[in-house]
Design brief:
Blueprint (H helix, E strand, L loop, with lengths): L1 E2 L3 H9 L40 E3 L6 E7 L4 H9 L1 H9 L4 E7 L4 H12 L2 H13 L1 H4 L5 H14 L4 H8 L2 H18 L3 E2 L1 E4 L2 E3 L4 H12 L2
Parallel strand pairs: 3-4
Antiparallel strand pairs: 1-5, 2-4, 3-6, 6-7
């Protein structure tokens, strides 16, 4: 289970301390670099307009139970949940109209943020398919080595999802979008008291990571089954 940084420290760790750079293609003699926002440009999360961020949701919006997952793309426990638990959860509860499931990104590091930008790049319709690819390949792309190598591995995932290189690079270097996502995450995490990943908010109540058996027991109780 990954532990969270306090909101203030998180902001400094992610968008402070100078600019970040995404390398445009490995092996290039002259790399193209695009700075992401530094601390001097960062606003307090509460002051950032996050209304343009799309909630990534599966299932019937009118389902009797709402589940929100908070997860990081670089969290091994989150990968385990998505490769071992989520499929059954989706089949038994989301696809049957019992649960509305929303995925919200948590940011520990720049690599998780890059993965988030890739996942959101192709739009809402393809988001969960890309999430699946990211988690299945987590042990490969997250351990690729250098920043350039990790970025290239994430680009490969984007291309597998049908995106072109120009589209992928535009998403990876969208500093305004990144700053807004960080603020959005901080607002949500504060509201729900998120301290670790994965965490789940079930009808407003926050839970830590759990097995499918424990998850289904909670859902069945709320569904009156």
């Amino acid at each position: 289970m990954n532990r969270m940084l306090p909101a203030g420290a998180l902001a400094l760790a992610l968008i402070g301390g100078g600019a970040w750079y995404v390398t445009q293609g490995s092996g290039a003699a002259n790399v193209s670099q695009a700075p992401l926002p530094g601390a001097a440009q960062a606003q307090q999360a509460a002051d950032v307009d996050t209304s343009g961020i799309t909630e990534m949701t599966l299932g019937d919006a009118e389902a009797p139970v709402e589940v929100i997952e908070y997860a990081s793309f670089t969290c091994p426990h989150c990968a385990t949940f998505h490769t071992e638990v989520f499929k059954d959860l989706k089949e038994d509860y989301v696809d049957t109209g019992k649960v509305s499931f929303t995925y919200r990104e948590v940011y520990f590091d720049k690599y998780g943020m890059w993965a988030s930008l890739i996942a959101r790049c192709a739009g809402e319709d393809r988001f969960f398919g890309i999430v699946d690819l990211i988690y299945k390949g987590q042990s490969t792309w997250s351990r690729a080595g250098s920043d350039a190598a990790i970025a290239d591995e994430l680009r490969k995932i984007g291309r597998l999802a049908g995106m072109e290189n120009d589209q992928i690079d535009a998403c990876l270097t969208d500093g305004d979008k990144l700053q807004t996502l960080v603020a959005w995450y901080q607002q949500n995490a504060t509201e729900h008291g998120i301290q670790s990943t994965p965490s789940f908010v079930i009808d407003g109540e926050t839970y830590s990571n759990m097995s499918y058996a424990d998850f289904s027991a909670i859902l069945d109780e709320r569904l009156g089954e």
